[in-house]
Amino acid sequence: MKPITSPPSPATIATLAPDRLAAQAAEAVRELLAEAASANTTRSYDSALRYWAAWFQGRYGQPIALPVPDATVVQFIVDHLARRSEGGPLAWELPASLDQQLIDAGLKQRLGPYKLSTIIHRVAVLSAAHRAHNADNPCESPAVRHLLARGRRATVKRGERPTKKSAIAKAELTAMVATCDDSLKGLRDRALLLFGFASGGRRRSEIAAADWQDLRCTQDTDFIYRLEHSKTQQAGPSATATPDKPVLGAAGVALAAWLAASKISEGALFRRLWGNRIGPALSPKAVASIVQRRAARAGLSGNFAGHSLRSGFITEGGRQGVALPALMALTEHRSVAQAIGYFQSGSAASNPAARLLENGS
Question: Is this model's pTM higher than 0.90 or not?
Answer without folding.
Answer: no
